[in-house]
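A further point concerns the way the authors explain their paired sequence and structure data. An entry of this sort, consisting of the sequence and the corresponding backbone structure tokens, reads as follows:
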Amino acid sequence: MSSCRISSDMAAELVSVVVLNHNGLDHLEACLSSLCAQTHHPLEVLLVDNASKDGSVSWVRSHYPQVQVLASDVNLGFSGGNNFGFRSARGSYIAILNNDTVAARDWVEKLVQAAEQHPEYGMFGSKILLYDMPERLDKAGHLMYWDGQNKGNGSGELDDAKYSRPGEILFPDGCAALFRRSLLEDVGGFDEKFFAYGDDADLGVRARLRGWKAYYVPDARVWHRHSATAGIYSATKIFWVERNRLWLAIKNFPLPLLLLSPLFTAHRFFWNIWFCARGRGAAANFRKQHSALVLGSTVVSAYLDGLRKIRPILRDRRQVRRNRILTDREFFFLLKRFNISARDLAARD
């Protein structure tokens, strides 16, 4: 049996960590053990279980009684599951951590130190490294293309000096991030319509539009088993990524940029096809497991579903436009600052 000691000393700020789980029993011991070894106290760990069928709930309750288990009878997805955890979290800071990760002992401590030193920031990103190739990055914050598609900064690259410098990022990756409670209350948490993928980008963009900023903390390290839940080249993942990209743009982008979005997307698809034909990039690796017909039909289905369910997204857009603090000009230059080209987006995997 693993032991877990979570201090109740209230001298420091209470931090809540929400861990989302769906049939992730094989990953939970490593993840929860790393949280129970954290140097920051007091720490509240909440495991949100999304209707697992693998005995995750009973195992956690037996092996980690100090972890608060919030069990849902249905799969709420990434967005709904994390929001479920946010509603029960008591901390002034709330972190989210994927169940397929291992966090360094000072992960929470480094994030909180950065938050205390930079009160003008509301979101804090970790240095996320690949579990099986720890010398390489999974993500160090995010970059975004002009149609709303995003990519982790440094994905797959060697962890060198340029990724060890702290500073502003567009938004943190939902795999391992810290938020001020006040930010989550201001923007309303994740959009549960997204279900999974792109929801962290939507939250980050909405927070930026509200005037919140994001900060990268390279000393806050996490090792991630990339896409262990959905699968790296899952057709379901491609569907959610493309549909939610469309929703993110419609919901958040200024009208001139939104009107140009189909052209930007066509340019992105051109480079995906170009690299796929040469055996490079995510599209080429997807083709190794699925046919071109499956890839094409998945993308078409994503857009049809996105357009069919567009009415609530348009209502959200009106609210986002009313509540934004950043001007369209400021938002444009923000995206320009943290931009990734269509070519790089297609070439990286």
